[in-house]
Write a structure and sequence with these properties.
InterPro entries: C-type_lectin-like, C-type_lectin-like/link_sf, C-type_lectin/snaclec_domain, CTDL_fold. Pfam families: Lectin_C. This protein is an alpha+beta fold. It is 49% helix and 20% strand. It has 2 domains: 61 residues; 129 residues, Mannose-Binding Protein A, subunit A (Mannose-Binding Protein A, Chain A). A hairpin with an 8-residue loop joins strand 3 and strand 4. The two termini are 26 Å apart.
Amino acid sequence: MTELKVLVLICVSMVLQGQLSLQETDNTFGLFRQKEYYFSSSFKSFELIRILAMETKRLANFLVVLLSFLIIGLIKTQKEDVNTFGIFREKSYYFGNTFKLNWHKAVEYCRTRGMFLVSINNGEELDGVVEYIEKSGFTKTHDNLQMWTSANDLGEEGQFFLSSTGQRMTFDRWTKNEPNNAKHDTCTFEHCVVLEHYLPFGLNYTFDDRPCNVDYFFMCESLYD
């Protein structure tokens, strides 16, 4: 928008300059008409050529400025596209599979590493997480997995958000009959979301709400600048 405003100002300035130029030409022409010169026709031809040359130069400068704005805008757009794609594709993970933490401590631990508790809000993000887990060899040595994600409804029951990104959780991959906010004692309910995997029960990387104070494995993620 800033480039467009500058461009409009340049156009207005050129129009005003053109009007002044025409007025000056008219006055000059009037003066010539009030005097007698032997080579008057030749002089007027020279003056007309001079005016045309000035207007041509002004138009050329305008085209150069316009082309510069177009080139700058194109380069800026290309850089933004490349950076956006690069950040998305270069996500890195830390899989805390050697010790367990409750949800709040998992959030803090990820932040101490300059990372965030993992957010999964579409199939592509899930594929990246699953691929990382599978490559770690975890599923070859463990029968099941419950792993904290950043999703929770601590702010309002039933309204799940991703604490790491602030986005509403819209990826519908819940385990059957979940989330159910099950009550575990007089004051403990299920408000934090795990990604769970246990094929004998048909749990193939699905979501389940669990009590936030229970210790589970977890995963951190970061985006490169």
